[in-house]
Specification:
- Helix content is 65%, strand content 0%.
- The chain is mainly alpha-helical and 158 residues long.
- The termini are far apart.
- It has 7 helices and no strands.
- Helix 3 runs parallel beside helix 5, helix 4 runs antiparallel to helix 5 and helix 5 runs antiparallel to helix 6.
- The chain has a domain of 78 residues.
Length: 158
């Protein structure tokens, strides 16, 4: 069973009804942890701005997790997303993306799927956090590792 994300449901209802969210709630919406969320989003932004795949071999001294482990990390990230544990997922994403990028750089074939899925879950999270522009960047990165040796599109800025 999937946990409900109450805020996004309320926002969707407000959109359908063409009213503001405060009108439905009877008060202004005040997120409890804006500072923490913004710090997490800044860390995700910083991770998206580094792109280790462009480096032929991974940087020396960096640990490269096996593809199976990275795939397990991605599965955990999706479960965390489905349970609407966005603060936890925001904290997980920087390491997840770094591991996925390194695994793809070392094992391009088998590392492609976990990398794409890591970017997909990142994009989904960022949409939920109201960071649509940054979500577009993550989505753009998801379609980049096509497996044909072509670099990803970098048309969007951070």
């Amino acid at each position: 069973m999937r946990s409900l994300d109450r805020l996004s449901i309320i926002q969707e209802i407000a959109t359908v009804l063409r009213v503001e969210v405060p009108a439905l709630l009877g008060r202004e919406l005040q997120p409890a942890d804006v500072g923490h969320r913004m710090l997490g989003v800044d860390q995700v932004r910083a991770t998206l701005s580094t792109y280790e795949i462009a480096l032929a071999p991974p940087v020396a001294g960096r640990v490269v997790a096996p593809v199976e482990r990275v795939a397990g990390m991605v599965a955990h990230a999706w479960t965390t997303y489905q349970h609407a544990r966005y603060p936890s997922l925001t904290a997980l994403v920087p390491d997840l993306l770094a591991h996925a990028q390194r695994a793809h750089a070392r094992y391009p074939g088998p590392g492609r799927a976990p990398l794409v899925d890591a970017y997909r879950v990142t994009a989904a999270l960022l949409v939920k956090l109201g960071e649509a522009d940054l979500a577009w960047l993550a989505a753009d990165r998801a379609i980049g590792p096509r497996g044909d040796g072509c670099p990803p599109s970098t048309g969007r800025s951070i």
